[in-house]
Amino acid sequence: MIETRTKKIKNVVLKKQDLKNIFNYVNSQNLDSKKQQNHSTLNIKVKCNDDTVYDSDSDEFFNDGDVMDIKKCQQVIMSYVDYKLDRRIELSIDSDGHGCSNLTIRGCDKDWVNGRFNDLVVVFDSLKRQDNFYLHYKTFLLHLFAVSIGVMFYYILFRFFVIFAIGSDGQDLNDKGQMIRNFFIYHQFFKYVFLLFVFWMFGHIFGASYHHASFYKKYYPPVEFDFGPAHNKIEKIRRKQLSFFVLIIFAPTIIMIVYDVVKNFYFK
């Protein structure tokens, strides 16, 4: 009977030394097979952003000045196979956000499978994680983003068309419309709750969830390679630009909105 165990790899930042440690572990299994004179193979494949693919059966990729230091790597694949004992370790790590990163261990000996799987899980669990404010408050930021999109469409669509269609003072509203308008004038709290719900709803209608997911894939990919030329570390460059945007534009805007709400509630 053959047993297969698989682990998805996500939310990790990999340095070249991390990959070397993993390769050395996989290579140790290959060396054990060679000692037993079993027919086995070991391979590591590196795909770069220029669509060039490099193959090797040694650790030469980890030498200083080699491919990983001079090019942006998109994918690393390691594989070990012992044909006599029917053992296999496959590792695919994809950093471009389009593919999946998985560890798969397969074999007839369940003790060997579980032992190798647990060893490598410990290695991956010890890797540096993507850890920051945006990931800690992912759900909250999704709803905040939805409200922001709703506010934008409110000012573009509602404010523009209503002012020119019925007048900003609401004189052309019918009796029910006038009653609702007066209710919100005298009950400001309900007005803000209602508007917040409307903004949130419109934000999700106009694709907040999709853009939110795209944001995290672009700025915080599930797997990030932290090696190679500095100008090719696109995610780090994007995050620096994002920090500048939040500090210079987004934060002052939020402060202005909070000030406006507080002023309407307490300083009329």
Write the layout of secondary structure elements.
Elements (H helix, E strand, L loop, with lengths): L2 E6 L3 E3 L1 H20 L4 E9 L4 E4 L10 H4 L2 E10 L4 E8 L7 E6 L2 H16 L2 E2 L3 H4 L1 H28 L9 H12 L1 H18 L2 H12 L3 E3 L8 H33 L2
Parallel strand pairs: 2-9
Antiparallel strand pairs: 1-7, 2-8, 3-4, 3-5, 5-6, 6-7
Structure write-up:
The chain has 268 residues and is an alpha+beta fold. The protein folds into two domains: 3-129, no CATH class; 133-266, no CATH class. The chain has nine helices and nine strands. It has helices at residues 16-35, 67-70, 110-125, 133-136, 138-165, 175-186, 188-205, 208-219, 234-266; strands at 3-8, 12-14, 40-48, 53-56, 73-82, 87-94, 102-107, 128-129, 223-225. The strands form two sheets. Strands 1-7-6-5-3-4 form a six-stranded antiparallel sheet, covered by helices on one side. Helix 5 (138-165) packs across helix 7 and helix 6 (175-186) packs across helix 7 (188-205). The longest helix has 33 residues, at 234-266.
**End-to-end span in angstroms?**
77 Å
**Helical content class:** 40-55%
What number of structural domains do the residues give?
A: 2
Total DSSP E strands: 9
* Poorly predicted spans: 163-171
* General shape: elongated
List keywords for this structure.
alpha+beta, 6-stranded antiparallel beta sheet, elongated, 268 residues, single chain
Brief account:
The chain has helices at 16-35, 67-70, 110-125, 133-136, 138-165, 175-186, 188-205, 208-219, 234-266, and strands at residues 3-8, 12-14, 40-48, 53-56, 73-82, 87-94, 102-107, 128-129, 223-225. The chain is of the alpha+beta class. It is elongated, with a radius of gyration of 28 Å.
